[in-house]
Fold these 4 entries.
Entry 1:
Amino acid sequence: MGDMFRSEQMSLCQLFIQPDAAYATIAELGESGCVQFRDLNEQVNAFHRKYVNEVRRCDDMERRLRYVENELRKDDIKMPELTAEQEPGAPNPREIIDLEAQLEKTENELREMSANGTSLNANFRHMHELKSVLENTEGFFSDHEAMNLDSNRITDPNDPNLANAQRGQLAFVAGVIKLERFFSFERMLWRISRGNIFLRRNDISGLCEDDETGRPVLKTVFVAFFQGEQLKQRIKKVCAGYHADVYPCPSSHAERVEMIKDVNTRLEDLKLVLNQSADHRSRVLSSASKHLARWSIMVKKMKAIYHILNYFNPDVTGKCLIGEGWVPNKDLPTVQQALSRGSKLSESSIPAFMNVISTKEQPPTYTRTNKFTNGFQNLIDSYGLASYREVNPGLYTCITFPFLFAVMFGDMGHGLILVAFASWLIYKEKQYAAIKEEIFNIFFGGRYIILLMGLFSLYTGLIYNDVFSKSMNIFGSGWQNTYNTSTVTDETNNYLQMRPKLNNFKTYPLGMDPVWQMADNKIIFLNTFKMKLSIIFGVLHMLFGICMSVVNFIHYRKYVSIFLEFLPQVVFLLLLFGYMVFMMFFKWAVYSDDTDDQALTPGCAPSILILFINMMLFGHQEPLPGCKEYMFEGQDTLQQIFVVIALLCIPVMLLGKPLYLMSKRPKHLPAPAQAPAAQPAGGHGGHGGEDDTTGELFIQQAIHTIEYVLSTVSHTASYLRLWALSLAHAQLSEVLWNMVFSKGFIFDNYLGCITIYIIFGAWAGLTVGILVLIEGLSAFLHTLRLHWVEFMSKFYEGAGYAFEPFSFKAILEDNGENN
């Protein structure tokens, strides 16, 4: 936990690496994940950097890997997933050459098989369609007719003898077309021939593969009978326009039978070749799938290494690469060890070394977390990343966040549901960590937050004595009935009043007395209790936030801010709202039913809200007869003093720091005579910039002062959401019990068991869906707002930038999420 109090101390390091050992050294640094490298070649175009050719080689290998992966998806072959222990390291230069050759060989082989497979499939499809044409046109021809039909007859239009011989004879064109295009195709043929084409069709049974999309479609065989060579050319053009395949079809029955035999033989040969090609393709893909995951990781690591090497600058001699990067101080030995391992692996004669250099640049922010604290730190980082070495609210959020949530969600039953759900996620976290579903990962990432919220809800539910809107009588009620039987059974008595002096004989040891569950004024009592409790928690939470600013001031050595900012803010908050909290405790302690002084009885207890309003407005209110306006002697004078002191704190906050900074500035010497000529024109001459700086300082301090004074009131009122949501949650739970579950108890026979069984399902579903999920999400968001706005605004700047080290693990995880 100590690591979470502040971000890690960072050092800017300069690395000196020999070019021969650079690859192996960066690979070791990538495995350690401790260095955030800086780009020393920002002015150099990406295409002009030293290792641009190596990066292009990696891009080419990635392209080949994607091609192989797409081919695996087409054949539904899954790649085996590698565990963290099975992941390969970055390849050495010899492995790079072998890997590149293997990928090139695999890609070329798959491309050749894909091209051959496409050609073979097209031939098989055409042979199958030709067979369909020959079989389905059998009924279109008759050998007994006197006509001589030939689809392949070649005629010479200039030969009058042939023209006279063929006059009155018909020719035909046979082919296959998609069924959805046939009717438009038929109309087009009718138009171009003016009705002089006789068209017949026969649908092919089953689905055929589409040439364009590869999807199964319905197709039909057609035969168009016509007369004349010119009409034949028109028909073929229309077939080409409608993507209809035209096939040769003899008119003689014997020739068709012979042709069908030949086609069947060729189809059998094609099936054999296609099966052998598919087996060979499957073997190649299965072999590639075993190594593809390793190849992909190796290429990604190799590309990341060369990308980082492009950040380095060669020295003047060109015999050394110089790089810079941020390193956490605790990881400096790790980085030094990685440099030594890299030099040893590459057998470099000169070892790589590292120098820590001083800089005024703001380092990145890095907070070490584990699986427990990571969720809470993410809540803080969502608001803004902490400035370097700024106090980290994440450490305290681990307790304050689930506690304030539980104040609004105080029910032992609902808290137990959260604990059970979070415990299941934690028990199965190794199994569920591999799930990449977005909504599930939100709950899984916050499993420890949910666990603490549930545990704290169990505690607050015990204090509220609330379990699914019912109370538990663990220690025995501290109230007793002193009325006789006739008074209790008298129907004219609508209410029986119990006074603490007469009916209360002990204090309930822990939480609410269960007798309040039956009281008619339960809501009024709980309203007052929870409202005051929310103000108390709110003032303490804000006061803690203001005190955290002192830690920042001491660390950044802004000691003057302690006296000119922190002290006025604390005094302002304590004298107003801290005093209001004091009045709450004083009222609880002093006013009692067990007293002989009428002024100290509960009926004479003044309203704290009215007292506070009169305190701010310097007003008064007439008390009831026998009562006093104030709680103790001299309270009026004390309140006036508190208000005056609080108001005096405002000018201290507004003017104190700017005036102090102005007094500490060195006095300026008079400018030389020639200086005004060199000054640019401006309303303030040579002092314009200084006046602007002073003005900005006053304006900035004025904004902060106004914001703090106004937010002190608004933020205190904002904590009333603790009371409002707690009350709403309790009432919704009670409504669900009375309006749903209690209806199952109206039957006193065997039907009651069935009714309770059915109604319990509805009640349980509504409880989980409304009270746990929706109300829980509402309480979570309100708690988040209380931390972001009311608590963290008192001390948290959040102007840092994240430490993003060069890490193979992070690179592979990001690529996995993108995929």
Entry 2:
Amino acid sequence: MADLSLLQDSQEDTDGLLDFVSQDEMLTPLGRLDKYISSENVFNRQMVARSLLDTLRAVSEDERECVSVLERIDRLADDSEPTVRAELMEQIPHIAIFCQENRPSIPLAFSKYLLPIVVRYLADQNNLVRKTSQAALLVLLEQELIERGDVEKLVCPVLVELTAPDSSDEVKTEAMAIICKMAPMVGKDVTERLFLPRFCEMCCDCRMFHVRKVCAANFGDICSVVGGEATEELLLPRFLQLCSDNVWGVRKACAECFMTVSSASSPEVRRTKLSSLFISLISDPSRWVRQAAFQSLGQFISTFASPSSNAGQYFRDEAEWSGAQTHSSSADGSCEAEEGGGEQTAEVLSAASQEIPEQELFNSFHFWRTPIPEIDLELELQEDRRSAAPPLARKQLQELIENLEPHIDDPDVKAQVDVLTAALRATALDSGLEDAFLEPRAARSNPFSSQQPSEHLSAHTRRRDSSLHVTRDDDDSDVSDSNLSAEEERKYKQQDVVPQALLEQYLSMTDPSRAQTVDMEIARHCAFSLPGVALTLGRQNWHCLRDTYETLASDMQWKVRRTLAFSIHELALILGDQLTAAHLVPIFNSFLKDLDEVRIGVLKHLYDFLKLLHQDTRRKYLYQLQEFLVTDNSRNWRFRSELAEQLVLLLELYSAQDVHDYLRPLALCLCTDRVSSVRWTSYRLVSEIIRKLSSCSSLLVSFLGELVEKFCHSSKWSSRQAFAFVCQLSIEEECLSLDQFSEHLLPPLLQLASDPVPNVRVLLAKTLRQTLLEREYFLNSSNCQQAALEHTLVALQTDVDKDVKYFASVHPGSTRLNEDAMSTTSSTY
């Protein structure tokens, strides 16, 4: 009995609930709204706020009912519960969009009913309601749902009033943040008239550093809106104060927005005032400020570039520049010979000028070669008097350098050669000789070669070597030359594009001490901004950045090298082909042998980099492309997929013969990859190779025969299916003529009609019906393959598999290549 009574009670409750639901269903939308909007249950009123948009849609056809709903919204806005007001404010943007879409039936609904609620909530006592209203206001401005006049008359005055001195600190900070975010949306005129005076006042708020921090964080945005004149007259003095604020968080915010402030300033102000100001931030006592400053340093330097300049207009033509440097170096060498050689040197020059070709006439090797025996005798006498290094030590140094020269590409060996060359140069200066090793090492295959210096060497090397001449009668020649070399080294880093102090600070970012005192990631920030700095300085000042770039390229952190690998193609575009071949190609080669995390950066832009190289240099990489097939992790299939995509682009850079000899094996290897996505990308690569080889009939016939043998006649059904897909793609992309297709690919393709695997026959049916029969060429009765094509299609229409029968009989308009071919083989992973 007890169980029966419980059952009866439960049934009664259920009936009551059903009656309640049925009563709500009988109410009109406005009736339900009135019923719950006055409920004492908070959750019911929250539910009303959530359902306002649905209620409006339900009554959208009746203008009077829409106005009634909007009036209820105004009533709900006065709810005493903050969660209800916050819920209402979240729905305001959606309701505003609805009102905008139905503007003819409910004109001025937003500005009359909704916007006053948003403005009122900006000063609400509850933090959640204020935050929600601020977010809603920004959304409404972004969607351009507020009229410009309403913004000036209703919104802006309220925000300015909220930043008044008598406002609470929290409200003042929030209002200033909204003002800064609104400035780009409302434009220059409104910002200058309504916001700018209060913004300048808040920058000097002595009581609350939070307000100053908000101003500092958004200073660049305000400068960008008001323009250069207002920035320099009104904002820049405030910015100077913020950069010297006693709170490190404010100074850090200034460092982070420095680039945008600089972009809004004139070049004179940028160079005279902002540069020194930024230097003070770099040397700030707070590590966090220094860290932010160094992260923004490269961006700040990039603002010194001329807005009308590009990578090709910073300097003269690179060949003319190299020629001018070579001529300058040669002239210095000839003057040196005239001063040190006397009459004997003049005779040597006259004799040499008759025997030496014109292009070799200014090579310093021909000037000192003949007097060597006499100089050696004199050297022995001087060594006795001056206690110089014995000749044996000199010969040992020469032998060591000769042995290391073939391995100069290794960075460690290069460093050793530099040290040994410096030691040898020092002994030469002590003895009064112009040593042969003063010539650039890369210009000769051995220390005594008579070839000209390589045109790819940096101008600094030629300028430095040509300037190191010594008079034998000067006892203090070693000291004076040492001072000259140090001075030349300082001049070597000089340029006039950006303030030298900024460049020196940027170059110091690779200093290991910076990682300990500033930021462990400082080298990566340096690498990230280096292309922008290089573009600003121009290729004529590349020598200023070369050492830094090489240091970053050999950094122990793979993230630093990865950053450079992803941007090396951009740097190559800035430097041009000659500097790229001389300085970037060795680093590019080292990246090719690096970790996969670094190699992927090179691989993603392989085409962009190789197309900038000379054809002979570019061909050398054909032998290295196969190295990309090997990865540290065999499961990294995206690496191989990216390789296939890059190979498609690389086809245009090489001849048909090179494509056949080097890229064809890679494509066929990728077509047999274990991962389906890699294979399908490779099939497209094969079709593009067919297009490339179509200009050479012999190579094309050979490649098509190989495709038939390896794919159409393969024992793997996925390979046979791939052959059908390649045929379909070749026709749709017009990779070869229809005559060539009919002769070499169509007969083996039709043989797949008897394939035992249905998936192969399905793709064959799609290829015949959707691709071949759309071409009038295959419908022509004069075509010798028409009968075989029709016979195959009839056989597929009577196939035992229903999918094959369907695609052979019907031509669905929506089933195209990308949808069907891929979906059919989705199980071939």
Entry 3:
Amino acid sequence: MMTNLSRTSFTILDDSSPFLASLRLNMPAPIRLRELIRTIRTARTQAEEREMIQKECAAIRSSFREEDNTYRCRNVAKLLYMHMLGYPAHFGQLECLKLIASQKFTDKRIGYLGAMLLLDERQDVHLLMTNCIKNDLNHSTQYVQGLALCTLGCMGSSEMCRDLAGEVEKLLKTSNSYLRKKAALCAVHVIRKVPELMEMFLPATKNLLSEKNHGVLHTSVVLLTEMCERSPDMLAHFRKLVPQLVRILKNLIMSGYSPEHDVSGISDPFLQVRILRLLRILGKGDDDSSEAMNDILAQVATNTETSKNVGNAILYETVLTIMDIKSESGLRVLAINILGRFLLNNDKNIRYVALTSLLKTVQTDHNAVQRHRSTIVDCLKDLDVSIKRRAMELSFALVNGNNIRGMMKELLYFLDSCDPEFKADCASGVFLAAEKYAPSKRWHIDTIMRVLTTAGSYVRDDSVPNLIQLITNSVEMHAYTVQRLYKALLDDISQQPLVQVASWCIGEYGDLLLSGQCEEEEPIQVTEDEVLDVLEGLLVSNLSTPVTRGYSLTAIMKLSTRFSSVNRIKKVVSIYGSSIDVELQQRAVEYNALFKKYDHMRPALLERMPIMEKTASNGPTEIVQTNGETEPSVVEPKHPPPINQPASQGNDLLDLLGGNDVPVIQTTMPTKPASAGGELLDLLGDLSLGGPAPAPAPPAPTSQPPFLLDGLSSQPLFNDIAAAGIPPMTAYNKNGLKIDFTFERANPNPNVAVITIHASNSTEADMTDFVFQAAVPKTFQLQLLSPSSNVVPALNQGTVTQVIRVLNQQKQQLRMRIKLTYTHKGSAVQDLAEVNNFPPQSWQ
């Protein structure tokens, strides 16, 4: 009996026609969207909200499976709300298409909205809508046509745009302003997706600017702007519309109160901004168009109310337009004065916009911006970090020879009190400005010492050799400088760059410190023991870095020819012959050898440095002669080694403190064999003559630096350029970047050509992250040494140098493929070039 009953029940449930249909009719209707929102908002935890959403999604899925047409619209609306909350709603995509195909406007509205939110051109499902959109674009109801235009303009793919561009162009010519404004925006999307369809809309644009409706005018200006930005031909064609645009803008300014378009007392500011942007594009680089719009721009600049943010937005667009077109000088001054007024605004965003705009215009209108210098400097005290950074950058841009003292005073005060994140950029800016506009050498030295005292830990790596070079070349300031630096050492030894410069100067000019010959300030009375105590204190201080200890030990060694306490210096040097620091140990061992085996050469070796020649005026500098301390390249491989050494009597001995062997120690960038793949395969290109290229000669191991005194009886590493008779050449000159090659011949091996690249930058912005790479055919071997910097300064104010060694055992003609990568004005640049015009002397 139980078996018959269960079989009967199964039969009833399986019969779906009358009973289940009535059962479905008796099921409760799904909750409305408003009730769902209210329910979800009552959830106290994320888990509770998730549970509600999952329960409702299950109900919606069941309804979709049962093809319930009655509540499909309501269910999709709820699904869109869940999508806005971040929950998956992709299973409703096909239901949106069904709603779009419905004849009800309410269904179409939700269906098109769902399509815009849930579909995009990456999914093939959207192509199923093409026929529905085409039918709705030809619908008799303007609101249905508007829905189709909005959807096509929002997510139409290039295929859909090609298929439906004709219908959009027809609606653009209609007399219905409601449809024309939507068709204009849809045309913008079509042009972005398929630029070659631009000419299709050209006839329809003739009468767009004659429309009185502001909505149509606004969208028409957007369409014209898009066409002008994408096509130079369209730009030339639409320049004849400048008088008409000027007339529209003038009517907006002079028109009386219109409640329909008024925003804070200004008539349709949105349309004004759009027209100003279009005028900026049309007037750029064109004298006639710029002349036609000068008067209206002056009217907008003088008649716009600045008490409300709406007026400030219009004024900002006016300023940008004035600066971009070929405007009159008086109009440009007016624009900069507007930005000056913005700096006094209480709104931080307006102040930031003003500083950014002034920074862009300071190169072309320097004198006009100078009038607002005091206001700009006041912005350095702002609490907002973005405003402070922009004010700092603009302040450095305003520095010139006339205001250098006043501006440096303000910027040094800012350096004292600013956050650590600003100190590096501020210190670098002070160095560059002082180097360029210093009124005197004493002022220059005082300024850089002030920076080192205040923010020594944040300065650039090349600040120490730059200051040493400046001090060396200022012969009359030696006594003053060494006295100032000695006092600074007594006060603070935590700023390592300052300690390094002070150690170098005391070692070089310690005799002047004892003699009290300083005329610029009252001389101090010190003894030899006091000076040596200070330097020995640096050797044992926990604050001293290995580089600083190297400076200190070398300074003590140099004082052995300037002081009479030679025995004490010998003891100090001998102690560090067993130091755990390999660099310090090597120096001490070699200095001990000087005291013993080469004592007769010690006075000539440690004599005072000659005046150094400077090869870069801004940024990294090269020292022509060095005693090893001007650039701590032996200790820190990231610093560039000195590469040129003039021949002299003690040329071999100059190696002692860091000379010719340094490049061998710091071969940090050897080229990789072509078989290793990667970038060099791209570089070699057709230079490879078949087969893998042999690997370059391996660099000398860095774990055990060579004993520098081993080279005392050898030849100089490089011949003088003039003696070699190899003319320099320009290998690359493009986009403001110029690469020059100079040549030398290595004495120990005449088959090795030493090429020094000199990279210079003639543009107005620095080239950062600069990397030079080179590759040669397989019959050559190539080795790249470290560059002097990765920043090529702007306006040819400095050069980046790098040494290349090429082994050419078969004396074949030299060919090279070079690869350049750098960042310029925020954009990454990469370029390849082939160099085949090497002078015959460089490879024969």
Entry 4:
Amino acid sequence: DNTNPLGLTHFLNVQFSPLTPPSGFSSYNGGEMNGTSKMMDFLEEPLPGVGTYEDFNTIDWVREKSRDRDRHREITSRSKESTWALIHSVSDAFSGWLLMLFIGLLAGSLAGLIDISAHWMTDLKEGVCLAGFWFNHEHCCWKSNTTFTDRDKCPEWKSWSQLIIGHGEGAFAYILNYLMYVIWALLFSLLAVLLVKGFAPYACGSGIPEIKTILSGFIIRGYLGKWTLIIKTITLVLAVSSGLSLGKEGPLVHVACCCGNILCHLFTKYRKNEAKRREVLSAAAAAGVSVAFGAPIGGVLFSLEEVSYYFPLKTLWRSFFAALVAAFTLRSINPFGNSRLVLFYVEFHMPWHLLELVPFILLGIFGGLWGAFFIRSNIAWCRRRKTTKLGKYPVLEVFVVTAITAILAFPNEYTRMSTSELISELFNDCGILDSSKLCEYVNDFNSTKGDDLPDRAAGPGVYTAMWQLALALIMKVFITIFTFGMKVPSGLFIPSMAVGAIAGRLLGVAMEQLAFYHHDWVIFSGWCSQGADCITPGLYAMVGAAACLGGVTRMTVSLVVIMFELTGGLEYIVPLMAAAMTSKWMADAIGREGIYDAHIRLNGYPFLEAKEEFSHKTLAMDVMRPRRNDPPLTVITQDSMTVEDVETIINETTYSGYPVVVSRESQRLVGFVLRRDLIISIENARKKQDGIVSTSIIYFTDHSPPLPPSFPSMLKLRSILDLSPFTVTDQTPMEIVVDIFRKLGLRQCLVTHNGKLLGIITKKDVLKHIAQLANQDPDSILFN
């Protein structure tokens, strides 16, 4: 019954004579009923706090799931008794879907808010709208009646130099604009890092490594709390607007998971059960990707492939629903004013030719190489930040990186614009009306048939753009290494895609010019006649973006789906698949881990990777504690230890649980009891149960052991004892033990020999063992 916070509602119907309370029971006067008073065993109903977890501990999936099944059985059996109970059971079944609806609405609204604010603040660095300062550049010029070619130069929008000195031409105006750009960038990033440092240290980074760890059953209190949500939403806008080389996509997953976690508190079923809550967080992660890329199905697949640890079918349907609601909400907010969910939506109409698979595979190889290089360099830099004095000055670090980024970015128009706009420009297919430098070809209008322009010779604008893009590529490649992992919210999807899109566009234009000047070569002769439009540079940019993103994150299926939902290019699934697969193979050949797994290992989170194979021939007895020369295992006997003995054990050790045995001599196993449950139960009994003193015997059996009547009353703690702890024999191969830990999500496993207790293996022991076999420092596993 969830109504009573103390949970002491069911009294034990044991009928004793009211005069002689038996040992182990306090006299509980529940009012005389039929001449007998009701007695109560203190721990028949769980106390508040029993069965909960400390911070930085791992949850016990087996225990949480069995609790949920018990709760479900109780509700089902009660629902036959009364109409009210039936309504309760229906509402309980419906609560999961209701929660998904709320998560979708909240995540979609926050994403819309972040998109609109970031768009406006990015434009604020260059100028301001006189019609209303809350308009960004694009919205400001909507009402203006300028011609299509001058659409960026409308009178309502003033650059800073026009506002301050009255004109926008000349060297002084350029320097003034440059200065304002750098000042705004520094202001935004400093505000972001100070907010993170002051209010929510957990709001920095992308959040996906931590969410993977949390979904695998680890507890990091406050990581998904309300402060983290508020600060992350505000600082994400600031960090993206400051022009740093980072994206908002990864952090949006963290924001959505915060929404999921906070909304879980509305429903008892999810508030009280950690395993159920993790199912909700898996679905929330899907909603996060859904709003980040406008890719609901890609989001569900991303959650399944990349972040989730336990993903039952029910969670798949719920993720689908949450992603749908989130995408629908964002679509109704319409943050970009183009009825699309993303900034870079493209439509290509030209089919690709089979021979183009060769450059696509080359892009895949480039993506894999860049991914592996990025992971190595970024991890090396983050390790240096952790181990040297650099980590003590997060504000200074952000200041310096922002200053360098802004100073290098302003002169080059492709780095000055926001990364999303850059990607959208690179994906774009040149039409007749395009005014961008990338589309300044030498026009020969005799052969134009409708909208499809033939391949043309590159004009001076294209060559300038190629130079600027090459410089932008070099800058992005190096600056992203230092940006990802700073103390501001930073996503990795957009910078990786930008690197790939630039490389792809450069290759695409090169191919196009090759086909234009050498259409009689063997490779082009069959399909590319003169005056035909055979190569689309924007498509190469799209494939390159997918390849680089795949190289960094090692996604495959979800990546391809996200890319074609993002760009609407259904006929380009094969090029995308070829590039994603090649980049994964290439990157895996150099280093096994993706960026998120590498960060999990760097931070020492206790995460058992489900994809890795365990191939060593070790046995359970090699891993268990105590080792040969260690002191014996700390155990509690089932009916011969006093309260004082148990409290001494608790104070002298730091273990999170203790095996219970029949006696010290026999060492036959009875069960397992958790430290936190013991502390709470003993404290509670001392306060509320008469006659419990330090010399009282604690017993875990059904019936109290026979003692002389003068003895103080005894404390029965059978209800907190886990009677079915997981055990293996000392000869069990470690590969089976590791599999049991992965598939069941265990915290610990007891080791027996001929039925006698020998030792214990915890999740940390397994992780340390794996690290030792991989020649890594085993102490790096302990979460720091």
